[in-house]
């Protein structure tokens, strides 16, 4: 009787596990970012195809092409977020041109995949213009909770290792957080490809 109760309890627990716990062991859904600059180290992000399959596939495609390698954290606002991923104008060399943050990739923009996930510290979201269906290659990592973003931006994952590296990324100045001599993503890989 007790054995059946534990078995039933175990089965019930497996049915209610959140998607990230089930996917955490799948290296196909882990993005590894090597950060260099003022902050140095490795950040691992658990991607959430259960929430945003098209956005996650885009990030993995660009990572596999090497498009994110050398791309700067062009916009970093204390107590808010660190933004990167402009593969068109956001390389480390281009970051001071004033164009960083205005570009994307050669691939088409993506339709919004909003969810009920909260934008807490460590959550990764897709950057976009005023048009909800304009996300392309840029993403941001939260440094602190920002509930005003909930349901307004697509959540693609969460930092599962290296939040201390994210927290050390060089901050920008002014209201827009533009960073002079920014930290950058030296390499971005899908862990399963290693």
Mean pLDDT: 88
Number of domains: 1
The named CATH superfamily: Cyclophilin-like
The share of residues in helices is: 10-25%
Overall SS class: alpha+beta
Q: Report on the biggest sheet.
A: 9 strands, antiparallel
Overall number of strands: 9
CATH class: Mainly Beta
Along the chain, the helix and strand elements come as: HHEEHEEEEEEHE
Question: Which strand-content bin applies to the residues?
Answer: 15-25%
Choose one word for the global shape.
globular
The rounded distance between the terminal residues' Cα atoms is 46 Å
CATH topology: Cyclophilin
What is Rg?
18 Å
Describe the strand arrangement of the main beta sheet, using strand numbers. Answer: 3-9-1-2-8-6-7-5-4
Number of helices: 4
Architecture, CATH level 2? Beta Barrel
List descriptors.
single chain; 194 residues; alpha+beta; Cyclophilin; nine-stranded antiparallel β-sheet; globular; disordered N terminus
How is this structure best described in words?
The chain has 194 residues and is of the alpha+beta class. It has one domain: Cyclophilin-like (Cyclophilin). Helices cover 20% and strands 23% of the residues. It has 4 helices and 9 strands, in the order H-H-E-E-H-E-E-E-E-E-E-H-E. It has a 9-stranded antiparallel sheet. A hairpin with a 3-residue loop joins strand 4 (75-77) and strand 5 (81-84).
